[in-house]
From TrEMBL:
GO terms for cellular component: cytosol. SUPFAM superfamilies: VC0467-like. This is Uncharacterized protein. Belongs to the UPF0301 (AlgH) family. InterPro entries: AlgH-like (IPR003774). It holds the Pfam family DUF179.
């Protein structure tokens, strides 16, 4: 069963958001970068900090080399309630940096080298913080209907009618994931 939630989008079941352990998940769209026997890691894609990337580079030097003009989203994502001081860049899949988490489509990079490499910045996302689950925890929560799960595949996500607060995050994810195939997001649709 492990691994089946890698490259999926999670939205907390609204019925669970009154539970204290799910308060941090309410109304968040979480992209699961990795799910395996060792647990799962994901980042929130629809919550942002209220200041531009340049403002963060004073506190986080690692962000100074990233040009907001090359990113899929010019805002810095508030990726989750854990590791809130740890910057990341979610880019097309690469396997060359020492501190990263990969799936077949995207890489969640924490390495200084990734932030300094402009070749991976195109249509990437930048943020601070993440979500994580221990071994078996996410499977248990999904089987208990705590999450709505959607494979992060272009045809499926384009057919679903997400509320506005989720749709822009889905569009941004699809841009980051499929931009290398010359796809662009336009009015909620992907087009050549």
């Amino acid at each position: 069963m492990s691994g089946f939630l890698t490259d999926n989008v999670l939205i907390a079941n609204p019925a669970t958001t009154d539970l204290p352990q799910f308060a941090a998940s309410a109304e968040k769209l979480i992209y699961v970068v990795h799910h395996g026997d060792d647990g799962a890691v994901g980042v929130c894609l629809n919550e942002y900090f209220g200041k531009p990337l340049a403002d963060f580079s004073e506190q986080y030097e690692i962000l100074a080399s990233v040009s907001p003009l090359s990113l899929a989203s010019v805002t810095v994502h508030s990726g989750g309630p854990l590791a809130t001081e740890l910057p990341w860049i979610l880019s097309r899949a690469v396997d060359i940096y020492p501190h990263q988490i990969n799936n077949k489509s995207l890489s969640l990079n924490f390495s200084q080298e990734a932030f300094a490499d402009p070749s991976i910045h195109m249509d990437a996302l930048v943020g601070l913080g993440s979500f994580s689950w221990g071994p078996g925890q996410l499977e248990k929560e999904v089987s208990g209907f705590m999450w709505h799960c959607f494979p992060a595949q272009k045809p499926l996500l384009n057919r679903l009618h997400f509320e506005h607060k989720y749709q822009s995050a889905v569009d941004t994810l699809l841009t980051a994931k499929y931009s290398s195939e010359s796809y662009r997001v336009s009015s909620g649709e992907l087009c050549h």
